[in-house]
Amino acid sequence: MGGIGPKLLEPHLATRTSGRTRAPASAKLEKAELLELYRIMLLSRRIDDREIQLKRQNRIYFQISGAGHEAVTAAAAKVFRPGHDWFYLYYRDRALCLGLGMTAVEQLLSAVGAAEDPNSGGRQMPSHWGHRELNIVSTSSPTGTQFLQAVGAAEGWLRYAGIPELSGREELSRGDEVVLCTTGDGTTSEGEFWESLNTASNLKLPIVFLVEDNHYAISVPVEVNTAGGSISKLVSGFPNLFIQEVDGCDVFASYDALAQAHEYCRARKGPALVHAHVIRPYSHSLSDDEVQYRPGGERDADAARDPLRRFPEQLLARSVATQAELDAVKAAVEEDLRVATDIALAAPQPSRDTVYHHVYSMEVDPTSEGFDTEDDPRFTGDPTTMVDLLNVCLRDEMTRDPRIVVFGQDVADCSREDNLPQVKGKGGVFKVTWGLQRAFGGTRVYNSPLAEANIVGRAIGLAHRGLKPVVEIQFFDYIWPAYMQLRDELATMRWRSNNAWAAPVVVRVSYGGYLKGGGPYHSQTGAAVFTGVPGLRVVCPATALDANGLLRTAIRCEDPVIVLEHKHLYRQTYNKAPNPGPNFMIPFGKAKLVREGADLTVVTYGAVVQRALVAAKELEAEHGLRAEILDLRSLSPVDWPAVYGSVRKTNRVLVAYEDALSWGYGAEIAARIADETFAFLDAPVRRLAATDTFVAYAPDLEDEILPQVPDLKAAMLELARF
Fold first, then answer.
1. I want to staple 548 with a disulfide (CB 3.0 to 4.6 A). Which of 49, 389, 568, 643 is the partner?
2. Which residues of the chain have pLDDT under 50?
3. How far is the CA of 607 from the CAs of 475, 541, 543, 673, 701, in angstroms?
4. SS3 of 217, please?
5. Distance CA 105, CA 93 (A)
6. Nearest CA among 658, 640, 480 for reference residue 569
């Protein structure tokens, strides 16, 4: 593939500017600014070269370059405002970061994995950019996960503008900030790219998508990756989207295109997409060899467009600089690079004892006594259901903290607010959020598209902007499109950025069976999928009172929390409770002793708690055996002292859970009990769980699949007689 042909650069704007002619923005650039652009571009290339050298010397461990992208990314740094605008970048944005204010030392500290690396403290690979002071949000390896987070950050302006009661909102949102989200052409194939354009265009958000199109996704050429070979033509139907296509190897043209996009977004007309055609003169990374799939003629054509060749030629041709001045810039860059390399290679590595730092917040501990008001409820009103007490908690917390926004599919009362006086309101499939939109307005309670990654990704970006998202995933069975955002982004954010960034998002999700007619896609459980992820807190209330207290703790803590709400328990009469008051909290990692006993322990949670309690009562009446029932409530962290203490007292333990028996949550509980209390056990640790199948639709099949009271009784009796 050769250079850009004229056909690729034909304008095609979803939103066009007026026909008035005016001087291009680049005409206002002073000589000093242009020489600084050259310095940034050259420094970026030379850092790439130095890292390649260091990698071959085994002094760093990975390298991926921004070579060929320097013109458009340096221009972007000149247009956008560090510390004012927001940046969600990808790994080829070395020149952009340098232009925003990151130093060569800081970038090389990342390459060597130094403790003082501001990007991640040595926790991420090089070129995974992040800088708190510059508003560069921590970049991760999965391609495309930044899109929805960037949309959420841009949405922050919209939410702040609609919350007048929020004090200090002028500092949190200045009203003219713009989000820059960068990507390669290959990543535009990700579904989240299209989800992000959909929401950004729909809400007219101030976000610029910069597509740095080097015509290859590793070895896959653009025409294979993108229908028609042009992403800007493909997205031209999005409303409110301002599109510019530009030669990204030309600094002047890139600056002009980006300046127009930035101006469009600052004016709050909608999002923009700048499609910049760049080159990739080096292989994808040092793990790749482009010679294997790119012919020499194609690479030679790219070399002729190299921005490190073209820009100095332009400066000389326009009499902006002399050769002596350009040589002086080169000499200064080489000296800066030499000093930066020496500093980075001498920098200390992170201390081994820091590996657990910032997995969770080290400032706000939801397991502490400060979150334990369980012994002092201020009850009012008649006992009511879990649904009602979850709703009460959300109302109380939204009244207390105007930063809280609630969204998801169907959570609003009515998206068409003019219709609210005529309708009862939806408020979620299970009515947990009913009435919240009426009480707090559509800015704070609103519906999302039917897209789970959209919900969680936007929530992460909103959290970066200082808001407190409490989002709903309608059914556990449908959470999987969001799993990349949950596992690779939400859970890792604080740790991977070495505490520079965090996203304390609360994700509510209904789960479980025992409701007839759910079938394989409305009845599953799977707590272990989330409890096995460091950085996530996971709670699972079995009663209305616990649901109220655990949700309040989840909202007030500074960690991401998954709140598992069992559908079967939403409206049960046996777990009702009065309203415990607006300060009722249950700390994470505190189990509840549901029933005392001396003969065996049942460790359980969720809907199995009540079934275990019924089985224990029948077992005592029929056989005189007294089983102790321990409701974990908090699945991560676990109240291990309570578990071990009960087992040491009864010497027998049954772990009962609703998930499939094999590889489920109970397996880890059983293993830890065996490890820590082996000397106290008078019988093997037993497990009782669902069958290793999915949950079926037919009632008789569901009863056979899920743990029932007779199953629990039989298992408990067998264990007691061992």
1. 389
2. 1-20
3. 16, 9, 9, 22, 18
4. strand
5. 16
6. 658
Q: Determine the pLDDT at residue 283.
A: 83
- Are 286 and 91 contacting, i.e. CB atoms less than 8 angstroms apart? no
b vs e for 188-219, b when ≥16 Cβ sit within 10 Å of the residue's Cβ? bbbebbbbbbebbbebbbbbbbbbbbbbbbee
Going by their DSSP bridges, the two strands 216-217 and 220-221 should be labelled as: antiparallel
Count of H helices and E strands in the chain? 25, 21
Dihedral in degrees, nearest 10, Cα atoms 175, 494, 59, 141 = -70
pLDDT for position 21: 60
Contacts (Cβ under 8 Å, ≥6 apart) of 601: 627, 628, 630, 643, 646, 647, 649, 650, 652, 653, 654
Radius of gyration of the chain (CA): 29
The upper half-sphere exposure of residue 467, i.e. CA atoms within 13 Å in the direction of its Cβ, equals 30
Q: How many CA atoms lie within 13 A of 365 on its CB side?
A: 7
Termini Cα distance of the chain: 74
List the one residue out of 274, 310, 324 whose CA is nearest residue 37: 310
**DSSP secondary structure letters along 570-594:** TT-STT-EEE--TT----TT--EEE
Q: Which two tokens stand for residue 91?
A: 């790994």
Q: How far apart are CA 14 and CA 18, in angstroms?
A: 13
C-beta atoms surrounding 673 within 10 Å: 22
Q: What's the token pair of residue 704?
A: 């056979």
CB 87 within 8 A of CB 180: yes
Contact 19, 248 (CB under 8 A): no
Angle between helices 323-346 and 307-317 (to 10 degrees): 140
User: What is the rounded CA–CA span in Å between residue 550 and residue 639?
Assistant: 14
The one-letter amino acid at 123: R
Q: Which helix (H) or strand (E) holds 667?
A: helix 665-677
For the stretch 377-413, pLDDT in tens is: 999 999 999 999 999 999 999 999 999 999 999 999 9
Evaluate whether 663 touches 671 at the Cβ level (below 8 Å): no
Q: Hey, how many other C-beta atoms are within 10 angstroms of the C-beta on 416? A: 10
Q: Record the tokens describing residue 607, joined without a space.
A: 């809907």
Q: What is the DSSP string of 584-653?
A: ----TT--EEEE--SSEEEEE-TTHHHHHHHHHHHHHHHH---EEEEE--EEES--HHHHHHHHHHHS-E
Question: Three-state secondary structure along 38-60?
Answer: HHHHHHHHHHHHHHHHHHHCCCC
CA 249 to chain centroid, in Å, comes to 32
Q: What distance in Å separates the CA atoms of residue 298 and residue 610, rounded to the nearest whole number?
A: 69
CB 485 within 8 A of CB 456: yes
Alpha carbon separation from 411 to 76, 351, 678 (Å, rounded): 38, 46, 47
- The contacts of residue 257 (CB under 8 Å, 6+ apart) are 244, 245, 246, 274, 276
Helix (H, G, I), strand (E, B) or coil at 525: coil
CA separation (Å) from 39 to 254, 506, 698?
17, 44, 70
**Ramachandran region of residue 520, left (φ > 0), alpha (ψ -120 to 50) or beta?**
alpha
